[in-house]
Amino acid sequence: MKVIDTHCDALLKLQLAKRGEYFNASPLSFSNSEELETNLGNLQAGNVMVQFFAIFIYPDVSSDEKWQHALEQIDLFYTEVLGKNPAMKHMKSWQDFDSLKDGEIGAVLTLEGADAFGNDLTKLRHLYRLGVMSIGLTWNNANLCADGAGEPRGGGLTLLGKEVVQLNNDNFVFTDVSHLSVKSFWDVIELAKYPIASHSNVRALCDHPRNLDDEQIRAMFKNNGLIHVVYNPPFINKDRRDATIDDLVKHIDYLCELGGVKQIGFGSDFDGIGCYVDGLENAAKHQNLVNALLKHYSEDEVKGFAYKNFLEHRPQ
């Protein structure tokens, strides 16, 4: 069964390796490096139809270097992911999803944290032109747009952040609520035409700031938003670094109970996590989750979780 995965951090790994800061200072190959959980071979083995690639910059990178870091990751997306792998096809519009051929894998650029452009909306418009199709305003820290889930003061969107959400609306770009503070979440819900939680789970089952509570979940579903479950064990089982596929399925069950059977998807967070669900260690293993879900849900419902729900709720 085909899969759409709305979050991975392969670009960061490629950048760190190229900069000589990781992986024994040796560059990685997107085609087959084992260090990449979302390398081409794994995506093909997992029957991934479309993979979203996040641009992510560590908070400790100085503000005057963050734009350069973002450009480096975008360059690696174009040169290493697309340029050396003809099977990878750049998704530049939501209509491109409908033209993928057998054997092709769509590649989507996303931004995790507005730190990359600071308060420079010209840079943001350049990101749209370069193909960024989903933007999360924060990682866990605060920035000029909003407070993140790890910011103690728990503030919401700034005027700049609200302007960014409006620009996302105007450009048919998702606004990603994963990583936002609770107040920022509610500010986004009021403004965003295209909300998505690209990689978040259920807070009632795992009380973690990165997960969504029942009220937030209902608001996402009411506002035509998508919630894509994340494969990171600490977001599945509280205070644990282990999880089973059945543990993750419980989060999908809960989302369905809240009315989201048509608005659930997968957002693995591969290449950004340090521990794994047993049987979901890399992109080649997506079908293990699919097969587990087929024991509980109809084939049509599982196709929805795997890819159809996303296609039906993408910006139009």
UniProtKB/TrEMBL annotation:
Entry superkingdom: Bacteria
GO MF: metallodipeptidase activity
Protein name, as recorded: Membrane dipeptidase
GO process annotations (BP): proteolysis
